Amino acid sequence: MISIPHKTKQFLVLIIKLLIVGGAFYFIYNQLANNDKLDWDKFLILFQKNQSVAGVGFILLLSVLNRFFEILKWQNLVIIIHKISKAEATRQVLAALTAGLFTPNGVGEYAGKAIFYHKSETKQIVFLNLICNGIQMVLTVLFGIFGLLYFNGTYNVVNTRTVLILFGVLSFTFALLFSVKKLTLKGYSIEKLIHKINEIPKSIHRKNILLAICRYIVFSHQYYFLFLAFDVDLPYLTLMSAITSVYFLASSLPTFQFLDFAVKGSVAVYFFGILGVNEWIVIFISTLMWFLNVVLPVIIGSYYVLNFKVLSPTLSKGELDKTQ
Fold this sequence. Notes:
Low-confidence stretches: 313-324
Order of helices and strands: HHHHHHHHHHHHH
Shape: globular
Number of helices: 13
Number of domains: 1
Oligomer: single chain
Helix content: over 70%
Number of strands: 0
Radius of gyration: 22 Å
Distance between the termini: 29 Å
Largest sheet: none
């Protein structure tokens, strides 16, 4: 096994840090500066008309709560390995978010969290992050299906036959997955995954689900309140059904974090176009949601990435706990 000198390793880590942070800021700037669909003049006129310190503060508070619930979720799950403080959970979550910004579906986030732990714990960290993200995806699918059914029942976007076919395909897929749960791929199987999930105390699962529901309510209603701020006057259930449908369908598409607003924006334009909402408003709100819930946390996360120190592989668990 090739041994890398300590100074060389430090230099490589510095290069990686600068690439992650530099890449993150480049992608953010590129998306904001070169998006010709963002009409800043219209936005400024509307902002001056409806400007409110309390309103802006409320929207920012929802962004803080969105990430805070994610931080609490991670702190709750990782207690299985180590008990960490909220400050340490914040450091890990935001640094991992920054690392996952330009990787497909944020897969870099898994590695971003794993580097804070001993090599022997990497598999456990990846598994816990899968649980952390998985429950959010499950809720997105559940709320999204109900929202889509309500929206479709009101506006008949897709005929009943197509809905039944889609529901049948989903049911068949889940049934097939559980029927072959003993099928092993590279040492992993659905049966083993279920067994590992069941090893986690029920109290931790309950808290994880509760925090995930709180987070979903926060970011979906942030979307809702932004539409109200842009003078979109639609019934609550209609607006929320469109929002949950957009999140469901957009989350089903493979994408990068830095393109998240573009994907959600394109899906949102279709749904809110049916409701008669102006396209530029939909694009702007999708961009604002991305800026408030991805860009701002990434800016903070960049600080943690730049200040990250590689843990020695020889650290004992006790010494590792002290570093955290």
